[in-house]
Amino acid sequence: MIRVHRLVENPIITPGMVPPSRPDFEVVCAFNAAVAEYNAETLLLLRVAERATSDRKTARVPVLDTSSGRTRIKIIEFNRADRRIDFRDPRCIRAPSGFYLTTISHLRLARSTDGIHFTVEPRPALFPESESEMFGIEDPRITKLGASYYIAYKGVSPRGITTSLAVTTDFISYRRLGIIFCPENLDVCIFPEKIKGRYAALHRPVPKMMGEPNMWLAWSPDLLSWGDHIFVMSVRPGKWDSARIGAGAVPIKTQDGWLEIYHGASENDVYSLGAVLLDLEKPYLILGRSNAPILKPTARYERRGFMPNVVFTCGAVRHGECLRIYYGCCDEGMAAADVSIKDVLKSLGKHKTRSRHR
Amino acid sequence: MIRVHRLVENPIITPGMVPPSRPDFEVVCAFNAAVAEYNAETLLLLRVAERATSDRKTARVPVLDTSSGRTRIKIIEFNRADRRIDFRDPRCIRAPSGFYLTTISHLRLARSTDGIHFTVEPRPALFPESESEMFGIEDPRITKLGASYYIAYKGVSPRGITTSLAVTTDFISYRRLGIIFCPENLDVCIFPEKIKGRYAALHRPVPKMMGEPNMWLAWSPDLLSWGDHIFVMSVRPGKWDSARIGAGAVPIKTQDGWLEIYHGASENDVYSLGAVLLDLEKPYLILGRSNAPILKPTARYERRGFMPNVVFTCGAVRHGECLRIYYGCCDEGMAAADVSIKDVLKSLGKHKTRSRHR
Question: What is the ipTM of this complex?
Fold first, then answer.
C-alpha cells in the first residue's frame, strides 16, 4: 500500500469560495481542476458548475443559446408538477423536449503561492460560447509546451461530448483552437513534449455499438489534428477500474517511463485513482499498472457530496520526488494529496534504481 | 421525382462471382464497393464477407488472431444446441464469451472496361491484419489525390469500429497508413482536393451518452491526422433519414457546390440514398438537401437479400452530366444507377444555371 498524504487543509476549494458568474446563478460545484505552475504561482483552472435559481414549483435550467448569431444564456423552465418530466437525477432533467443538464459549467482560475491556499478569480476564464458547448465546458487539462499552456477541455451539447483546445501564455487572454476530438471523446491529456517528432495525447473514446470506454493514444503534427490512433489499455473486469477508465493528470516523465495517474470507476460508480507506466518512446506500451488504487474515496469529503465516492484528477505537480495530485472530490470541491514518485513506481514493479539492488 | 436509370444488368456483382479466399470459406456477400477510374478501367473495391463452412450442429466463426505475433485466421466453434448462445441475427452471435460477427470481410478488386461487366480478382486486395481489424475490414471509399488513390475503410474489432487509411498508386500493392478516426466512427469520405490549403473529410461518429449518429466534417494537414471537427447535419425525425445518416460517395465538385450522395436509414431500417449540396469553400454549410430519397429500395434485388431493403453507396463516377452511382443492395451484391447531376441539383433547389432563368 502506498503512503498517501492528504493535505490537512482538504478540501482546499469549496463551492462557497467561488462567486457566481451572474446574480441569478448559484455555484453548486467547483472541482476537476487542471493545474499549472506559472510565475511562481500554482494555478488551478476549476470546473465551476452553476445552477439557475430555482424554487419548489419551477426548475430553471441554463443553456447556451447561439440561435441569434450571438451567444447568450437562456433559462428554460420546467414545471415540477409535470409528470412527463423526470427530475430524479440531480445532474439532469429528462423532458419530452430532450435531455438537459441541471447545471452549466465554465472554467475559472484560482491562484496560490503555496499550492494549498487559493484565491478564486471573480470572473470566468473560459465560458461556453459555441454550439458544441451548449451544456457547458468541463474537466480541463493543461499541458505546457514552450511558453504556451494548452488547455484540452470537454464540451457538452445535445450533439455529444467533444474535446476542444485553447491556448494561453499569460492566463489572462485565451485563444480557442477548435474541436480536436469528435463525439464521444473525453479525458484528453496531451504529453508535455514531442515524442519522436510528434505530439502525443491519451484520450478516451466512448463507442456505442461495440467496445468499452477504454484508453487510446493519438499522434499529431500540430496539436490540432490527431490520428494514427492506437489502443492503450482497457477496463479490467472485477477490479477497481472495471467500468470506465480515463487519463487524469498530464503524463509525468520519469527515468522509467511516462507516469500517468488515471481514474477508474467500478460498476457501482466508485471513482478511484491509480497509475500506469508507459514506455518513453512508445507511450502506448504498458510497463506497469496499479493492481490496487493509489487513492480511493475514504475521507469524508471524498465519500459525501454532490456525487458520493468520487476522486477524479485533472492534474498533478511534481516537486523532486514528491507528486502532489490535485483532485476533485464528490464532483463538488477540490482536494490534494502527496505521494512519493519512487513509491508509485515501486508499486508498479518498475523502479529501476531499486530493482538493481534487489 | 428524379429520373433514376437502374442498369438492366443489375445486380452487376453477386457473391457467386467471387472466389473465396480459402477453401473452407464461402462468400456470402460482395457489396458496398468503393469505385475508382484507373488506366481506362473502372475498378470496384468490394467488401467481400466470408463465412466459415458450418453445419447444423456447429456454427464456425472466423476471427483474426494476432496473439502469436503473426496474424492468422482462427475458427471459433459454437454448439448450436447451447441455449446460452443467441444465434437469431444472421450477422452476429452473442455468446457468454462475447460478441462475434458470423462473417469476416476483406476488400477485393473487380475490373471493368465498360463500367458494367466486371471481372473479380482471385485474391484479396486488402485482408484484415491488425487487432483493430479482428472482425474484418469493410465499406471502403477511394479518393484520388494526385497520382495516389487513398482508401478509407472501416475496421471492426471487439475494441470498436474505427476508420483506417491505405494508399495505392497501382492497385497491386497497398500501403497501410494507420487508424485515422477512433471508435466509433465510420462512413469517412475524403474530399478529392484540398480546400483552402487543407484536406477535408466527412465522417460519422456514433456517440453513446448523448447525440445522434450525425455527419461531421474534419480537416487535416496530412491525411493522417484530423481535427477542427465541425458538425454538418443531423438525422431528421419523421423523414427517410430519421435514424442514421452517413456520407456515401466521395463528394463531387459542381459549380454550385460539393454534391454528396449519402445514405439515410429510417426507424424500420430501410436504407435509401439522397443528396446534400455543400458550400465549396465552407463544406460544412448546407446549401440544399433531399427531402425525398433519390434512390430507395424498390427493385427486387434491393428489397430481398441478406439484409432486406438496403441501398448503400460507397462511390459514384461522373461522366459529364451523368452520375453513375454504384451501390450495395441488401448487403449482398452490387448494382448501379445513372442520374443526371442537373436533375439532382434542381431537386435541391440549387442549380444556378436554371434558377437564373426562373
Answer: 0.94
